[in-house]
Specification:
about 700 residues; alpha+beta; 8-stranded antiparallel sheet; about 35% helix
Length: about 700
Amino acid sequence: KFDPISQREFFQLGAFFNNTTQPAMDGNQKDSPPVIVIPNAEDEKEWAKLQEVRAEAGRSMVVDEELVKDWWQKSEGAVDRPIDSANLSLWLPLHEKESELPKGGSWAENHPAGKRGIRFENGADLQAELVGQSQTEAPLSISFWLRTPDRLVGTTLFDQTTKAENGKLLGWRITTNTQGALTFQLHDGFGKSIKGLLPGEEALAPKEWSHVCVRYSGGLANSAVSILVNGVPRNLRNSTQQTIQPAQLSNSALKVAPSLPTGGMSDVRIYRRWLNDKEVMLLAHEFELRDLLDRRIAWSNLDEGERKLATAYHNQVINTEFRAAARRFAKSQTRRDFVYARSVTSLVSEERSESKPRAWILNRGEYDQRGEEVGPGVPDVLPQMGDEWPQNRLGLAKWLVQPDHPLTARVTVNRLWQSIFGTGLVETAEDFGATGTPPTHPELLDWLAAEFMASGWDVHHLIKLMATSATYRQSSRVTPEKLASDPANRFFSRGPRVRLDAEVLRDQALAVSGLLVPTVGGPSVKPYQPSGVWKPVAFAGSNTREYKQDAGDALYRRSLYTFWKKTSPPTSMAAFDAPTRESCIVRRERTNTPMQALVLMNDPQFVEAARHLAVKAMKVVDDDFYRAAWMMRTVFTRPADARDLDALKAAAAQFRAYFKSAPEEAQALVSIGESEVTDEFEIAEIATWTIIANIVMNRDDFISK
C-alpha cells in the first residue's frame, strides 16, 4: 500500500453502500426494485391519483387480531372456498369424486392433498368453457396445481388461442420449455404479444407438485404479468417492455393440458380479476387451511404459521371491510400497470430503515472471514464529514461535493479534459494516488476544479470552456521540433489527434450517410453482429444466449442504445477497444491494428453506410470528379485536396470497369445491409461509388480527430 488509507478506513468507506434494499441477485429483471417511475405528462395526474387510492386502500387493510381471535372461537370450521369466488370463471377440481377421468389420464396418488389430480400419459382431450367473455385489457388470474413431467420437455398447460380474421394469433396460452422455464403469452390479434417468463433457474421443482398462479392485471404490457409459485412471487425475466393493443378475446373452449406427458394437474381455477398475494397464498395452502379449520384447535395452541393462515383467510373472506379495501387495491392494479409500462423508469438505491450501515474487516480480503465490525467513515487524510450530515449515502454525497474536498472536482474535470484532448492532465485518470502519474499542469487542474465548483458543477460550461480554448483550437500538425520536445503531446504543443472511440466512430459513419436515427430514448437495440456471437459466453437457458438481430430503425440508432452483453461487447466495437464491461474502465486503451481496417471495410454497418453515402452523392452530381469533391466535403466539412480527388476519380473508373464485368459481385456488394437498394441507378454504378465512399470512410482523418 502506498496511499495513506488504512485497511480499516477502506472497509469503513464500503460500509456506506452495505445498507441498501436491493438483493444480491436481480434475476435479470428489466426493472429490479427499487425503481423510480416518471410518468408521461398526460399520465401524471392519473399516476398521482392511483398512488393515493392504493395508499388509502393499504391504510384500510388493518389486521385486527382481536377480531380474528373472536371469529376463530365462533367459527364452525367449514371452508367452502379458500378465497372469495367473485368473478370465478372456471373451476376444475380434477378429483375422482368431482370430475370425469379424460382419455389417456389416471388419478394421481402422490398429491399434497393425497389422492387428487390427474396424471397424463401424453396429453389430455380436456376442454372447458369459460364463463363470460374477456378482453386483452381485462384482468385474468389462472391458479392450478402442476406436477412437472418426469423429464424436461416442452409442454402446453393451457391454450385458448385462435386465429383472428387477419390470420394473426389471438388469445393466451401457458407453456414450458426444455430448460424448465414457464411462459404465459397473450396475443392481441394484431401481431403483437406480451409474456411473463419464469426462467429455468426460477423453475418449478422437477417431478413434484407445485401450486402455480399466473396473474395478468390487464395493463397491456409485459410488466402486467406476474407468476407466483407455492404462494411466493418469483422473479420474471423480460429484457424489454412489450405492449399490446386492446382487443376482444375469442370465447373458444380452453384446452387444458393438451401436451403434458407424464405430468399432472389439479384444482384449476380461473378468475376474471387480479388476485392479491394473500389470496394466492390461501389457494396455495388450501388443503392446510381446510385441515386447520376442521381440527378446531384453540387459538393459543396455534403456531405462528397457522395463525398467519387463519388471519389471511379471515381478512380475505370473512372481514367484508378488509376484503373491500383489498378489492379497491386490486382494481387499481390494471391502470397502475398500464401507466407504469408507458413511463420512464430508473433504477435507484434505497437505504434500509431497520438497520444502519456497517461492514466487517475481512481477513486477507476473504468474504467468509469476517473480523471486526466497523461503521461508515471516510479516510482521516481527507476532510471529515460534517456532524450535521447523516451517516449514510446522502451524507457521503454531501461530503463529496463540499468545497474543501480535494478530489471530486479535480477528478471530474480531468476526465472531461481527457474526453476532449484524448489524455487527461493526470494521465492515469483512474488513479490519483501515489502510484498514478502527477499532473502535467497542476495549476491548470486546480483552476479548472475551482471554476467547475464556482459554476455550480456545470458540465456544459466546462466543456465549452475547453473546446473554445486556444489550446484545443491549435493545429494538430507535427513539426520535427515539436516531435522532439513533446513526442506524446503531454504539454499540448499542438492540437489533439486521437482515434475516435468505437461508439463515436460508428455513429459518425451512420450520420454522414444519412442513416442515423436521432430518436431519443427507448429500449436497447440489437444491430448487426455475427450469428452465434453470444453462445460461447452464455449459460444454458440464458435469455441472452441467442443473438436476435433487430430490423428497421433499430439497426441505425445511436450506439448509446446498443444492447451490451457483459463479457461480449459488440464485435465491431471490440475491435476498436470497447471494454467488456466486466469492470469499470475510466481510461480506454487506443490500439492501431489491421483488424480495425478489416472492420471498416467489411462490417455490414459500415458497408451499408458507404452505400447510402454513395447514393446521396450520385443524386447530387453526375461528374466523377465533382461527385468525389461533394463526398469529401460532406464527410470532412472542408474542401478536398486535388490529389485526393484525382485518386478517387481514377479509382472510380477502375471499379466501374470491374463491376460492369462482374455484375454478380456488384449485386452482392449493394445487397449488404437490411435497407432497400434504390433502382434509380445501375447496380454497377452504386457498387462503384460504395467502394469509393468506403475508401473515404477508411481514411485516417475520418477515424481520428
